[in-house]
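Notes from the 1:1 (GR / supervisor)

We went over the backlog. Supervisor wanted to see one worked example end to end before approving the batch request, so GR pasted a single chain during the call. The sequence is below; no edits were made to it. Supervisor asked that the structure be written out right there so they could see what the output format looks like.
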Amino acid sequence: MGLRPAISEQTRWRTVLKQQKLANARRWLEILETSADPVSLVHEDYDNFLRALETTLQSKETFDISYKLSQILYPIIFGYADWDRWLIYLQQVHFTSRQLSRIREEARLLEQIGDLLYHKGDLRDAEENYHTASLLYKSRGNLSSYSRILAMLASLKDIQGESEEGILLCQTALETAVQAQDELAQANANLNLANIYRRIRSWERALQTAQTAYAIYHKLGHSTLLTKTSITLIAIWAESGEWEKIDNLSKELMTVLNSSGDVHNLSQLKNNLGILAFSQGNYNVAEAAWQEALQLHSQIQEPTELAGIYNNLGMVYTQLEEWETAEDMLLKAITAYRRFGDIFNWANSLDNLADLYEARGQTAEFQHTLQEAIAGLQVLKETPHAVELLNYMNQRLAAAGICLPK
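Structure output shown during the call:
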């Protein structure tokens, strides 16, 4: 049996190993900071960057390195949808920032934690993190960051069915960004506003704000945000039948997203291409695109996006007369929207379920489903898209000879 090294010897080697790991983390940070193409670099060496970050999470002394690494890596890897792991990383860095009273860094980390929770569907916790971060930004007079977080709070409100409040918050975010003379914050507010307008079917305003965001991102050279805006533009163009624009841009985006490993944006692109095919009556093409989006979302598990894909698949399977699958998909969408408190999309999915029951001649189910949707939708404020859907469903019941109770 060999001799064990003395305790002091073990301690010395542990110290040497720790120093080597720390030196390695510093080296990876330096490579990242000086790289001409950090996106490709991270895509190729993701595991090494994660190991470098993990090494620096262990103590207060390495906070600056861990914070810098996390801030460069986070926007690059967000599309990988590795959200559970990054939630742990950011929470650890945030804990250290509070210990060190690093308020600026604390606010930014709270915002990013809010982003992850938002995309994971934990809307209440996301709102709490955003709100705390907004107070910290405001207290320090950081108008650019305050604007950015107001725009995220606006999107969160919209997903919860409070589109009017979302629009007001986004407009405040835009005014704050203009006051700060921050073009990037202005673009962020315009993009979030475009997506709210898109969801409430205010297409002209959606197009105008999306194009404004695109122009600013292009001017500033923000490729990742240009991609996000392009996906929004495709969704808007699909409504007005701008097929050639969609075809050209989607081919370009598909190449970029496949090479970068950006699962999140790729799934959104597939979803929008499915909408395009469905609107043209190409139901098999739409079904294939939405199934691809669903498979990509199995890696992401973003509940808010998933609900929309379930709804879309329910619609296309109704057209393809695959009744059981259509009903299953629509019921999943309805359950998800109810959970988020998104009353409009919940009612819209119920209306789509009524289509299925009507096509199958299930009169009682058709009637009950529409009445449930109408009763729920009446609690919403009288926004144009809600009123339009409500009137449409009432007309459907009247055409079927059914009157709602007074």
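Supervisor's comment: The radius of gyration is 24 Å.
Batch request approved.
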